[in-house]
Structure to design on (67 residues):
């Protein structure tokens, strides 16, 4: 079994840390509340990841299974 660089907990913390940093940048540039900016940044990240999975990654697996 291959060893991944991060386990699930580490990956979650990594993502949340980046969400926090992105939100801090947003608040510094545009103002607002940090917790609101974090919610927006996380939602945007989640939607982008889901879109990438559904539109780019999964179709590649469909191709492999059909072959």
């Amino acid at each position: 079994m291959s060893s991944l660089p991060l386990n699930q907990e580490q990956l979650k913390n990594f993502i949340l840390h980046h969400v926090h940093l992105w939100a801090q940048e947003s608040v510094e540039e545009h103002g607002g509340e940090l917790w609101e900016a974090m919610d927006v940044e996380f939602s945007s990240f989640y939607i982008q990841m889901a879109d990438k999975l559904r539109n780019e990654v999964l179709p590649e697996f469909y191709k492999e299974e059909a072959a």
Notes: The two ends are 26 Å apart (CA to CA). Residues 50 and 56 are 10 Å apart (CA to CA). The mean pLDDT is 94. The longest helix spans residues 34-66.
